[in-house]
Amino acid sequence: MQENTFKSGFVTVAGKPNVGKSTLINALMGQKVVIVSEKPQTTRNRINCILTEDNYQIVFVDTPGIHKPLRKIGEYMLNIAVNALRGIDLILFVVDAKEGIRDSDLRAAEVINASKVPTILVINKIDQLKDRGKIQKISEELRNICGNIFESLGVSALTGENLSLLKQIIIDHLPYGPQYYPEDMITDKPSRFIISELIREKIFLLTKEEVPHSTGVVVEELKERENGVLYVRAEIYVERKSQKPIIIGKNGAMIKKIGELARKDIEELFEQKVYLDLYVRVKEKWRDNESILNNIMEYKTEFTKER
């Protein structure tokens, strides 16, 4: 592999919450790597998603939405989002075509503009537009605020419209450089983190109102048993006692459903049978507790084989 023929770089996907950043990354990757939900602020961490082909490697950086924080966890997420704009090659600034430009988009535009990183404006969800003329209007307004936008493109992460073109624009503007990660690696996050995210995604899918945002997931134990089954023990944190029975459900129906859906995804990811053990713990005000946040937001260990 010659460095002068191989392109590589880091591409941060940024924007306000709930504009389809994670869905866009999964679509560009061609597989599910990061969790998605219709609820805002699903993504809480920086996650590097690695797409490697014969002549390029794109490292997509998924980030929490740029927003006005109300709690300690919000400050944590905002810092992650802003720091992810540093030392990278490109930014994909994602906005919602149907919603149009809101104050939160303008706030994101100012933060992205301050980074001075070359930016592609990605106007997502164009499949929901009746008037495609809206794409040009959004582009013109945001280019006036964000001077580092050099290209604008309407896409649909859901239908795939213009995604091949977007990928080619990204490749064209990547520098020549080394392959940063092994070709079979799709994310730099450890197994415990990915599993906790899959469990959290099912909580977002199945619960309502404040409950999903009040939950955190920590994988306490991860090991492969002698029979080849991957054993996972995870704790689901909630903030109030009243939330615990909601997660558990009547006769354990809710936590059983969460476990069934999460186990299916984990088995597909690891290509082996999984035994998933879920527990619910009340941790009052955990979203404002720095030590708990550090435990939930970062994982540094992998699973080990059972001796």
Protein topology:
Layout: E1 7-14, H1 21-29, E2 47-53, E3 56-62, H2 72-83, E4 90-96, H3 103-115, E5 119-124, H4 133-145, E6 149-154, H5 163-172, H6 191-206, E7 216-224, E8 230-238, H7 244-248, H8 253-270, E9 274-282, H9 290-297, E10 304-305
Parallel strand pairs: 1-3, 1-4, 4-5, 5-6, 7-10, 8-9
Antiparallel strand pairs: 2-3, 7-8
Helix pairs in contact: 6-8
Question: Care to describe what's here?
Answer:
This protein is α/β, with parallel strands linked by helices and 307 residues long. The protein folds into 2 domains: 7-172, Rossmann fold; 191-305, GMP Synthetase, Chain A, domain 3. Helices cover 34% and strands 23% of the residues. The protein has a 6-stranded mixed sheet with strand order 2-3-1-4-5-6, sandwiched between helices. 38% of the residues are buried. The model is unreliable at 299-307 (pLDDT under 50).
